[in-house]
Amino acid sequence: MQPTPPTPLVNLYDLPRAALGELLAGWGYSAYHRDLLWEALYRQQVESFDALTGLRPDLVQALRERTRLERPTTHHEVFSSDGFTRKLLLRLRDGQTVETVLMRFKGRATVCLSTQAGCAMGCVFCATGQMGFVRHLTPGEIIGQVLHVTRILRETNESLRNVVLMGMGEPLHNYEGTLEAVDILVDQLGLALGPRFITLSTVGVVPGIRRLADEDRPVQLAVSLHGATEEERGALVPAARKWPLAELMEACRYYSEKRKRRIFYEWALIAGKNDTPEQAHALGQLLKGMDAHVNVIPLNPTVGYAQRPSGPDAVRAFQDILASYGLPSTVRQRRGIDIDAGCGQLKAAVERPRRSPQPTVS
Ligand code: SAH
Ligand code: SF4
């Protein structure tokens, strides 16, 4: 007979405070002990059981035997010549690697987190989409990225202000894992990030947007559109064929009305593709009258997609048309372009010889 494989020890970073409380309550410890442990994990940010000196020794012993404290490790790291951006390729327990980007600008630090290894949505211009889907990240693997950068920031007495869920993967395809990580981020006894400072970017997973609206989760929502007609969007974002534009916009309206919150719409501007006056007018019509802000991001060229970013004149013309519909827009800087700081690009560059060129599309 095969021996039963041992039950994997729970990673403490996978548990929001309520779940940690349930675990400890099962061992006979009160919420007081849970909160002491929580503060050690997220305020003092201890990295080993030995450092849990403020806890009862019997509790530390139980934790040592039944849990693990596991963070990702550095696989590769690059610094941008702009001086603001540091890009990390972090290795997870099973050897998968994900990207985390730390941006420091005018004393404000922002981290861009990955929520999946790879992505199933297959956007043609995206390096992660070109890799295909591997697996969801656990909440602890998402939080581990945050703790990795807060350790870096502590060296210079800086603190983290913004979190953007815009790295590798589609956050609403990994709804549970991502939103449990958000619960940990905003917990007032721990990292205590402000809900206004957490942005979740989705390719437009309609059931996820509706669920976010119903559950009132503490995030700012950004929706990646890239095309304002079914044809143009479907060509760039294959996943869009599953959730047609009309359904997506209905879900966005539902979200805005229910949460009374502005939605940001992202648009990667690709020369001669979706930067035309026709697309700008179609986008204006689509968003007219809604509480919307458009972020235009000139395309970050990737190896698997032979198109160019729009030039400054085309960007300005696109924005002018949006303004004629009363729509505010901002051009997002492509910080760290010299270090492949677009989503999935560092991983693609580091692991290029081994990766499969075939995108997986769900
Ligand atoms: N999956 C989510 C979040 C991760 S991608 C989403 O798609 O929204 C974060 C943002 O980067 C998205 O708006 C995406 O369209 C954009 N993006 C990805 N690759 C890009 C590239 N090569 N150039 C410009 N923007 C890109
Ligand atoms: Fe996935 Fe977002 Fe990249 Fe599309 S842009 S493939 S949804 S990570």
Labels describing this entry:
single chain; 362 residues; alpha/beta; DNA polymerase, domain 1; TIM Barrel; 2 domains; two-stranded parallel sheet; 12 helices; disordered C terminus; binds S-adenosyl-L-homocysteine; binds iron/sulfur cluster
Note down, in words, how this protein is organized.
- With 362 residues, the chain is an alpha/beta fold.
- It has 2 domains: 10-68, DNA polymerase, domain 1 (Orthogonal Bundle); 73-339, Alpha-Beta Barrel (TIM Barrel), CATH 3.20.20.
- It has helices spanning 17-26, 31-42, 57-66, 127-131, 139-154, 175-186, 206-215, 230-236, 245-259, 277-287, 312-324, 345-350, and strands at residues 10-11, 67-68, 73-79, 85-91, 97-105, 108-112, 116-118, 133-136, 160-165, 198-202, 220-224, 263-269, 292-298, 329-331.
- Strands 3-4-5-6-9-10-11-12-13-14 form a 10-stranded mixed beta sheet. A two-stranded parallel ribbon has the order 1-2. It has a two-stranded antiparallel sheet with strand order 7-8.
- Helix 1 packs across helix 2 (31-42).
- The longest helix has 16 residues, at 139-154.
- The chain is globular and about 70 Å long.
- The two termini are 39 Å apart.
- The model is unreliable at 353-362 (pLDDT under 50).
- Iron/sulfur cluster binds at residues 119, 121-123, 126, 128-129, 169-170, 203, 343.
- Keywords: 4Fe-4S, Cytoplasm, Disulfide bond, Iron, Iron-sulfur, Metal-binding, Methyltransferase, rRNA processing, S-adenosyl-L-methionine, Transferase, tRNA processing.
